[in-house]
């Protein structure tokens, strides 16, 4: 063993500038250990104070930037008509139909109470629907169901029959099978406080509880855009409650299993805690809004922050096992790992900062928070960690001479396998790569926002209930301009609009269409003694305008047509409710609509919008944006590798084991799952920054073996696997586990991102242990064998 110690210490004499700086830094930190710890803790508390400033998002629009053209179109639409925020109460008797008197009474009462929902500006239901009919020359406009308590079941059934014949109600607020009915509450938030939505959702849910208690034979579900917005916030809270704690405890356990030293575990736990809280504090100080996706940042940082500490502790333990005292082991570990830890931190930061190319602010937020957290972890790993280790007692477990631990023995055998079969390994991995790459085009992009949440989020169950029993929730809004003020009464415009509505209703996935022409045709019939023969578009503009004026004058407060018709009567709104439909099908439907209008009215200014429209293009838009981000990340990471390794060829070589796993990951996903949402836009950039870490550690150790120890290619690979192989495997497993925890998120985008990243990390581990050494073997031939590397004499590892 004395010979082994001498050999190792002789290695440290050949120091480059980076090594000398690392040793000087380690000596400075250890010499000023108490001051360093005090400074690190002070920085932590300053950053942690920002936690008080954190705000969470209550709006699905957080996924769209202020410059997003689709969002700008949607805001233009809302300025023309009215805000699109709403609650939809779905009322269904547990047995029977809505013809039953108690159901009608409940709907009427709930309709009246719904006006009390904070920020409500309109309430629509079957009971207050403005039913029109004629008596002689008079147009009568009244509630369809009024004073339900004094109506018989036959009278109620008659009114339900009327509702089912009314295009504006059937399939929207009245189920076609008479099994359920809806109450739609339109809201307009002032936007002055973050408490507005929580106040409204709390009141609405209290109404549901109150009426279900008063009418035990009813099931009432609450959905709509405002319920969707609340679900995003609730998913964030749910993840914080269910993921952070267990994740933290498991990471502590894994650290113990790897380090087997109490002081090492305590030091590592403090580093990852400081880094995570500091990053979230930074988010508060920077005014970053937390959403379900960016809310996963603590799990991401906890996972990534542990890696630097693990590398430093493993090397420190290795040095102590061959005879170094604790202080000498800390210094040597800092020297050996300083460059690799710095490079891996920088490349990971680059990967996450690339998310700023995305159009979705939550992706930007996750990237910036994680990048700061990784930087904080690097800072604490190179300051607080060695300073604390210098104070705390630290002992190591030494294996017997014949045992180097099962993990290290397996890694050394793998090294011999790759060395002996480099070309075969390269061909084998290459064929798998080609096969998986060919599967990628089969992936479908799908962002159905109801599917974003699992059953732990109340909105998911209520949304499914509404879809199954009443109406669809995927709504497309269209604004159809008439060309001039008052022109919506032009017969040609009305006929085009009516033909559009008829065409839409023939589409298989359409459940309901709300068009102004259904109102004008009903008025035409009413004004002609309710003769069904007059249920058509009026033939004269003046006549249509008169019908509209008479109808508007008869409407009660809050139930006017301002939400359907522009104030100067130059355009109208068409709402298209769709069944459960993939975003791919939605995009095709939108193309069909554009083609219909282009053939009917070339040069028209008809445009579509709405939440469904926005989410239909979110994946495509973000993937397109992230192409630029990925290119920049790849270029910057390659430059960093070239500079750090002082080798242009190494920098280029590193691209292969870093890009190949990403392509293979999506190939595996295509075969196993087949579809992905906007999480796909983030995985390539973030995974690239993460999986490059192991490549860095392998190449830096390989380069050290070739340049400092003057080992042959074969022996350099043996040295690399022996000194860093266990740490590479351990870190990959930690990272994969950490990101796989996100699979249990109640928010699908976060879950998909975690699963894809974990898969990429595991595939990258295989590539780094098989493909990378094979590439190194084929890169150059050994010019000199040098001294043979015997791992049993050099060092011991876990």
UniProtKB/TrEMBL annotation:
Domain SSD, which positions? 266-391, 650-778
Q: Which UniProt keywords apply?
A: Cell membrane, Membrane, Transmembrane, Transmembrane helix
Membrane topology reported for the UniProt record? Multi-pass membrane protein
Would you tell me the Gene Ontology cellular component terms? plasma membrane
User: Keyword Lyase: yes or no?
Assistant: no
SUPFAM superfamilies, alphabetically?
Answer: Multidrug efflux transporter AcrB transmembrane domain (SSF82866)
Gene3D superfamilies per UniProt: Multidrug efflux transporter AcrB transmembrane domain (1.20.1640.10)
Compartments where located: Cell membrane
Q: Which is an annotated Pfam family here?
A: MMPL
Report the superkingdom from the record. Bacteria
- Ranges annotated as spanning the membrane: 37-56, 243-259, 266-290, 296-317, 338-357, 369-394, 424-443, 626-645, 652-672, 678-699, 719-744, 756-778
Protein name, per record: Exporter of the RND superfamily
List the top taxonomic levels of the source.
Bacteria, Pseudomonadati, Pseudomonadota, Betaproteobacteria, Nitrosomonadales
